[in-house]
From TrEMBL:
Keywords of the record: Membrane, Transmembrane, Transmembrane helix
Pfam families per UniProt: RVT_1
InterPro entries in the cross-refs: Retrotransposon-Effector_Assoc, RT_dom
Lineage: Eukaryota, Viridiplantae, Streptophyta, Embryophyta, Tracheophyta
Keyword Transferase: no
Domain of life where this protein originates: Eukaryota
Membrane-crossing residue ranges in chain numbering: 12-35, 47-67
Organism field: Vitis vinifera (Grape)
Name of the protein: Reverse transcriptase domain-containing protein
PANTHER family: NON-LTR RETROLELEMENT REVERSE TRANSCRIPTASE-LIKE PROTEIN-RELATED, REVERSE TRANSCRIPTASE DOMAIN-CONTAINING PROTEIN
Stretches assigned to the Reverse transcriptase domain: 6-110
């Protein structure tokens, strides 16, 4: 997050939000005490969506750099005489589609 331009105040706030999370379980329909998490965010945590989006932004930048460096390829899409659009990947929700040639070195570079 620091490399994406977030300031130290924001980073401290995010860490605080992650580190103070407490959970409670229901026993026979009644909440039974609280306990701290030792593994960070969990599915359903409101912050996990934002952190996922930031992670996908980093993945998107890395894929773009790999294409620019010739390590993987994308595909060009052109409609008629319009300018071709180069697509290397598509991201939607929690899905990622990567377009590259079916070559061993491209797949190795992707991984």
């Amino acid at each position: 997050m620091e490399k994406m331009g977030f300031g130290s105040k924001w980073l401290r706030w995010m860490w605080w939000c992650i580190s103070i999370t407490k959970f409670s379980i229901m026993v026979n329909g009644v909440p039974s005490g609280f306990f701290s998490s030792s593994k960070g965010l969990h599915q359903g945590d409101p912050l996990s969506l934002y952190l996922f989006v930031m992670g996908m932004e980093v993945l998107s930048i890395l894929i773009r750099r790999a294409v620019e460096g010739g390590f993987i390829s994308g595909c060009k899409i052109q409609h008629g005489r319009e300018r071709a659009v180069h697509i290397a990947h598509l991201l939607f929700a929690d899905d990622t589609i990567v377009f590259c040639e079916a070559k061993k070195e491209h797949l190795t570079n992707l991984s």
